[in-house]
Amino acid sequence: MTWPSGIQCGVCISFDFDAESLTLGAIERAHSEGGPRQYAKTLTPISRGQYGAKVGIPRILKFLDRYTIPATFFVPGFTAKLYPDLVKEISHQGHELANHGYYHENPTEFLGNPEKERDVLRRGSDTLENLCGTRPVGYRSPGWDLNPYTPDVLLDEGMVYDSSLMDQETPYVLTSNTQKKLIELPIDWLLDDYVHFQFSPPSIPGLAPPSHVLEIWQGEFDGYYESGGCFTLTLHPQVIGRSHRMHMLASLVNHMQSRDGVWFGTCKDIAAHWESRCESPEGPQ
After folding, report:
1. Pick from 215, 232, 270: nearest CA to 16
2. Three-state secondary structure along the chain?
3. Structural domains of the chain ordered from first start
4. Using an 8 Å Cβ cutoff, are 262 and 225 in contact?
5. What is the torsional sign of CA 126, 144, 103, 98?
6. Residue 67 dihedral angles phi and psi, to the nearest 5°
7. What is the mean pLDDT of residues 124-142?
8. Which one of 22, 58, 101, 151 is most buried, counting C-beta atoms within 10 A?
9. Distance from C-alpha of 195 to C-alpha of 258, rounded to nearest angstrom
10. How would you class 175 by CB atoms within 10 Å of its CB: exposed for 0-12, middle for 13-18, buried for 19 or more?
């Protein structure tokens, strides 16, 4: 038995609250590392991220309250400093805040430099702790990729779980030493709103109809439910926050809540349960 008694399937609804870190963050980072001060020359790329803060987050918080769902928000430190009141409100409403870098850095940019990776991780955690009083225990790579030594850095920095890899449909122990375990909560591109909806030419055509995505996500959930998996959905406020997409998300949640034995939990809560159940790096047997 891997889930608590009476539970058939876990569901983690998570949000990557990037906001302007995808645009302004890169510019600020270049300056902080010794480059010349740069300024964004056009407003539209910045405004795409701002939509997530101005419209997406308030709409999402109302949605989560209506359905009494606890969620996890992966927040770059740069975003938290831009929107401290929003981040505090997320925490105040009982949702989990987790580490998503500082300037939305892909850790593979620091391959061979674990200390730089550690510094980025620590700055992100310090920012969230200073704002809300609780230090994050979870991490999602902004690039959905890890260096070979990243799990050890995460453990050293007090992380309980990571959510960046794609090799399972259930949580498992990614790495362990004699004192601590790092739980992996797997994700997948298929369960990410960005690739379906966000128009980013030329590589991401986006703009799929919500009915199409609902069919995919509902079918995936049914498969996770049958196998006793953990359905981890990755959403971005600037993407899923459009009203017609939120209606689609409501249809998905209604479908999931209609099934018996579904646990809607934060990534932290589900990872804590699996940490207590998993006894080997290979995961539950």
Report:
1. 232
2. CCCCCCCCEEEEEEEECCHHHHCHHHHHHHHHCCCCCCCCCCCHHHHHHHHHHHHHHHHHHHHHHHHCCCCEEEECHHHHHHCHHHHHHHHHCCCEEEECCCCCCCHHHHCCCHHHHHHHHHHHHHHHHHHHCCCCCEECCCCCCCCCCHHHHHHHCCCCEECCCCCCCCCEEEEECCCCEEEECCCCHHHEHHHHHCCECCCECCCCCHHHHHHHHHHHHHHHHHHCCEEEEEECHHHHCCHHHHHHHHHHHHHHHCCCCEEECCHHHHHHHHHHHCCCCCCCC
3. 9-277 (3.20.20.370)
4. yes
5. negative
6. -95, 5
7. 98
8. 101
9. 27
10. middle
243 alpha carbon, distance to own chain's centre: 21
Residue-wise pLDDT tens digits, 58-81:
999 999 999 999 999 999 999 999
pLDDT band at 284 (very low <50, low <70, confident <90, very high): very low
Pairing of strands 230-235, 72-75: unpaired
Cβ neighbourhood burial of 49 (10 Å; 0-12, 13-18, 19+)? buried
Tell me the pLDDT tens digit for each residue of 224-274: 999 999 999 999 999 999 999 999 999 999 999 999 999 999 999 999 999
Q: 123 is written with which tokens? A: 């700055």
pTM score, whole prediction: 0.93
Residue type, 65: D
